[in-house]
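Minutes, project check-in
Item: structure for the 350-residue chain
Input as provided by the requester:
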Amino acid sequence: MPYDGAMNHIRNGAKFGAASAAVLALVIGAASPALAAEPVIDGDGVVTIGSAHWQFNEYGLAYGWDAADVYSSSGYIYYPAEFYADDYAYCGTGVEDAVVTVESNGDMTIACPAGPFAATGLTLAINFRLYAESATGYLARQYTTISNNTEAPIDVSEDFLSYYYDGYTGTQGTPGFYTSLGGNTVTANDTGYVSHKPSGASVVETEVWALTGSAPDSGIVADDDPSVRYTDDSLFEPGETKNFVTYTNMVIPATQDTAGAAAAFELAGQQTGEYGEFTGRLVAGLPEGLTVVGWGVTPTTPEPVNPVVPAAPVLANTGSDASGLLIFGFGALLVAAAGVVLVRRTRARA
């Protein structure tokens, strides 16, 4: 779909993931990754994974841009998902306090230490998963657990939200920004947005905080800060833990021009269909049966079903041995079963 056509499609109220499969094939073919080196993290909290950089600090995930540094000084992702209640959520004093693991499939996980959630009395822990390069770009997952470890209920309804900053990749109200409901400004029932600068002067950013279409049923209310308020999940009973997940995806344009921006924007729009189900790589590494606000419950692996072995046939007393039939019958079952930027950026604590 040409860039102008995509914009018209969006203005007509198209939801995430609706576009031409032929275009998707062309874009994916052009963006297919080569074999990437194992992800690494340096002393400044910068993770290099494939052709992308993600930088972490005391606030968790702070920035995202391309490893070639084309967009390192402008057009980068900026603090994509910050939990807030009286103060921001922290990842210790920085990623040096976290447990960093390179997974067998090339992903990297970063587990921040649990600690107090501002002055709320709640305990918070943030875990990140940085996915290896794929045809949809670079995906990062922020998985946050908030617990009430006290013996009294805690209500944080006055100011319990998550911020999603725009402006460095694209701005609301422009052709480079569209939401899950097809507008160019975040409204109450939106569950995500895609943002970029059509001139090609930025990476393409996707933010998704709930399963597509789930916001009205989950008490999640978004606004054009953009931010998300968890109106139905602000009360924590004694011993209660609630789980929250946000996804940030980054597509790096192949060229820093209008054509490169259009192709990257198309790709980002195509891949949003993934957020219509809470399965596959989205739940990789999450506990089975975990209830996540705005997403539902992670899949549970079914218990294996043991094959039923038929009883031995009763034979006439002819002197024949039934053991061979038993072995043959079990083997038949098995056969049947087988058939079946780098410039350091600083920010003061709130």
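Outcome recorded: Residues 3-297 form one domain.
No further action items on this chain.
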